[in-house]
Amino acid sequence: MQFQFSSFAEFLAMDGHGIYVWISYVVTFAALAALALYPRITRRRIQRELQRQQRIVQRRCKVNNERIAVVESA
Description:
The protein is mainly alpha-helical and about 70 residues long. It has helices at about 10-15, 20-74. It holds the Pfam family CcmD.
């Protein structure tokens, strides 16, 4: 088997086209990473928002129950 390039530096340069090849690899892997991470980040954000809304509803229920108890005792 014969290798196309005689050294690792020549392999990275790819006859002057290396910059385009390696940039395309970086962009591709960055896009794949973003596609993998975006649902996780979105899920965490939605979970935090739902927890915040639940705390608000619980506080309102607690306040309303206290108001009802005060009115009933009066």
